[in-house]
Amino acid sequence: MSMNMAASAATTARPLYLIKFPKRPHLLSDSQFRPRLLSSQTQRTTIRATSAVVVESDLSTKQDQGTDVDLFACPICYEPLIRKGPVGLNLSAIYRSGFKCKRCQKSYTSKDGYLDLTVTSGLRDYIEVQPVRTELFRSPLVSFLYERGWRQNFRQSGFPGLDEEFKMAQEYFEPAKGGLVVDVSCGSGLFSRKFAKSGTYSGVIALDYSENMLRQCYNFIKKDDTLSTTNIALVRADVSRLPFAPGSVDAVHAGAALHCWPSPSNAVAEITRVLRSGGVFVGTTFLRYSSSTPWIIRPFRERNSQGYGFLIEEEIKDLCTSCGLTNYSCKIEKSFIMFTAQKP
Ligand SMILES: C[S@@+](CC[C@H](N)C(=O)[O-])C[C@H]1O[C@@H](n2cnc3c(N)ncnc32)[C@H](O)[C@@H]1O
Question: What average pLDDT does the segment 77-97 reach?
């Protein structure tokens, strides 16, 4: 830290132990950190997190445009991270910022356009290998092909297509208007970009475990002039370890993802933890079989087929309700299911 910074920190900063972290780090509408809202959007009253925190020297190389308690939380202890750098929920501001957990003393930075908030971020020797259904999508080839044909094939299984799926999700997300949407397992960001473009939400976080999917998403955003300055952030994280404080998110979307998760129960528990009261979860996936599947065929539909973990509707409902979510409902077409549930 420079002499000047140290001097000003000594007069303005409060020791970390005096800072009360809000349970829900939503920010006031006039907060410098709060994403821009369209004037037509309604906004709930929110709590501003306190600022003026001394940030360690490894973050001081970043642009000195502010230090603030952030929307993102430490994936290890879930304490909101301290951010140093330009404010705002957009690619450029996040790229130029450094993030640090004061409790765990771990720093997080961006790489290739996305912020890495996995527990393994920055590790030198340890390499995490996930199940095949997660690893498959980390491949550069699969990530490249995903939005260039792979996803369109889902129609054969009953998926109605991006526009219709987006419309259906938007209807379920009515209670989350003007709030923060996390598109968990966003892939190349097909829906994240639509959520951001809709102008319905104050911010969109496109989150995935795959570095290459996030790179694809970054390229798509960069090519789209209307998106590059919008309130969208790219974050690498594990759905079983979401980098948000409890109750800090208004809506979670997870398109065609549940069958790819290593542990759907841990994932749904995490999603429930980060949702605020009244927050909405919408997911789609392939069913192992549905009520229209002939009985004779059902035993041949294996749960772990082709490396994916396909569930049946009753299991999905059971998972959501056992995690404490309410108002469960779903729409089914062949193997396609869109389900929704709400945090009470
Ligand atoms: C079939 S793609 C779905 C992409 C997009 N949401 C859609 O609707 O087409 C499944 C995604 O789940 C992601 N995924 C798999 N395991 C994950 C994990 N543990 N945490 C977060 N995302 C994961 C993969 O990287 C992949 O991008």
Answer: 94
Higher pLDDT, 96 or 227: 96
Asked whether the predicted pLDDT for residue 145 surpasses 60, the reply is yes
Question: What does the block give as tokens for 81?
Answer: 């991270």
Helix (H) or strand (E) holding 159: none
Distance 221 CA to ligand 1 centre (A): 18
- Give me ligand 1 centre to Cα 104, in Å: 28
Q: Side chain identity at 157, as an amino acid letter?
A: S
CATH code of the domain covering residue 303? 3.40.50.150
> Are β-strands 249-254 and 180-184 bridged in parallel, bridged antiparallel, or unpaired?
parallel
Task: Give the whole-angstrom CA distance, residue 185 versus residue 238.
Answer: 9
- Is the pLDDT at 263 greater than 80? The verdict is yes
What is the enclosing helix (H) or strand (E) of 145? helix 140-145
Q: Is the CB of 239 under 6 A from ligand 1?
A: yes
Query: For the CA atoms of 266, 253, 324, 308, what is the dihedral angle to 10 degrees?
Result: -40
Which residues form the domain of 11?
3-116
Ligand 1 atom at shortest distance from the alpha carbon of 260: 15
Examine residue 333 and state whether it is found in any structural domain, yes or no: yes
Read off the pLDDT of residues 127-136 as tens digits, 9 standing for 90 and up: 999 999 899 9
CA distance 251 to 282: 8
Count of domains forming the chain: 2
